[in-house]
Amino acid sequence: MKKVIFALLLSTTLFACSGGLEKTYTPRVLAANESFDEFPKSKKNVLTLVRVDSNRADNQDHFVIKYKDTTINIQDGKKPLATLFKNARFINSQNTAAVVQVVDSSAMVSPFYLVVVKDGKSDVISLDRPSTGKEDAKFTDGLVELSRTNFVINNDFIVNSVNGKVYPIKRQNDSERIQGRFFMYSRDKTTLVFLTPSALYQVNYRNGETQTLQVPASLLAEPDRAAGEIQQNYGWITNANGTPFLKYNGNPDRIVDIKEFKN
C-alpha cells in the first residue's frame, strides 16, 4: 500500500512539474458560413489567454492558450510545434473564439489560427491559404486593422471581432492572395477596395461579388494623392443585388460625403 501511495504522489509531483495538461491539435480548414458566436453552457467552457513573462525580442505580449485546465498546442504539418502565440484576441464577448498568431523565428509573417470552443469541445482552424503570388512578401501584412471591430488577415480573411464572424476574401486569382494593399471600404463596410499595381480591386466579402476599377496610373503610383482624387471624382453606387461598388461619377464638381471613404 505504501508503494502505491508513493507512486501516486510521484505521479502528481511530475504532473505539477510538467505544467499541467497539454493537447496538440492539427488545424482544419475553415468551413463555409461558419459562425463562432458560441454561448457556453458552463462558465468553464471558455478559452483563456495566459500572458507569459519572458524576454521578448519582438516587444509583443506572448500567450499560451488554455481550455479549462488544458494548454492548447498546434501542429500544422511539418511546421514546428506551436506553443506560444502573439496578436491574440477574442472575436466574441463570450471568449469562446480567439485569433492567434504563432511566435516563431521565421523571417516570413507567422501563421494565424482560430481557436474555438463549440459544444464544449475545443478546435483549431487554419487562417492560411496557399499562395504563389510573386509579390506575396510585399503584400502579406499579417493583421491589418480596418476599424475597432474588423480586421483583415493577409488579404485572405476578414474577421468581425464582435459577433465571431470570419469571412474568406475572394481573390483576383485563386492561386495567389490579393497583390495589393487595403485602400478603403464602402459605407456599410462590406465592399473592400485594394490598391493593386494596375487597378482598384473591389470585393464584397459577404456575397463574393467583385469588380475591377481602372484608374489613372498616376493615382496608383501615389496612394496619398489617390485618396483625395477619389473622394472628389468617385462615389459608391449600389448595383441590382444591393452591392456597393466604387464608380467614376463623371462630375469633378460633385461633393462627396467624407464618411463614405476610409484611407
TrEMBL record:
Which residues belong to the signal peptide in this entry?
Answer: 1-16
Species whose genome carries this gene: Pedobacter frigidisoli
* Name of the protein described by the UniProt record: Uncharacterized protein
PROSITE patterns in the record, alphabetically? PROKAR_LIPOPROTEIN
- What keywords are annotated for this sequence in UniProt? Signal
